[in-house]
Amino acid sequence: MRFIPRFIGLFIGVLALAGCTRSDGERPPPPAPLGGPTMSAAGAPDGPTHRYSPFAIRLDGHGAFDVVTFKDVSRPLPDPALQTDELMAEAFAIALRATHPRVLTEVVHEPELLDPGNHVFCDRRHLYVDFWRSGPDPARWGYSLWSGCGEDDRFAWQEVDGPAAYDLAEQIERVVDDIARRLGVADARACHQRRC
Q1: Nearest C-alpha neighbor of 110 from the set 50, 65, 57, 169
Q2: pLDDT for 19-62, tens place per residue?
Q3: What's this model's pTM, rounded to 2 decimal places?
Q4: Which end of the chain is more exposed for a tag (fewer CB within 10 A), N or C?
Q5: Where are the alpha helices (DSSP H) in 65-108?
Q6: Exposed, middle or buried, 177 (CB in 10 Å: 0-12/13-18/19+)?
């Protein structure tokens, strides 16, 4: 008879959790690219679907953003050594210097950014870069740019070929050059939303 109170407590706990929904403002994932997150029959992701980068870029002088953070939404998740994350941040900082010469950039390493709990905020002056490698050729890359956490805050989505003959750094350089150009277009239009 001692198991009955435990069972009732467990049952109440499950009911309480079943009624909970995320209201913390975390932005929805981008549309799944080829090779992107797979969904189970119930609609829940099969295992982890993304990995946050501990590398960020501080911006000084940009009209819309003060910080850039990155999230790898590739499936399966690659690069446990975080080489891609560091290359992505460093290369994007350099690309921004070319397309935004008046903006100062500083790449920072903040290990606490690896914790998903540190990404449930929606700063107004925060550029979120989601990126992935997709398709049968691992040299195909994609990205989406977000100005916030809502569905309408995604203002760019693109896939870019990174020829297999290129090494990782050259592939990333090709992707971030495209990201910097797309950001420049959004800046010129003063539009960092899906519709404007």
Answers
A1: 57
A2: 333 333 444 444 333 333 333 233 333 455 788 999 999 999 99
A3: 0.72
A4: N
A5: 83-99
A6: middle
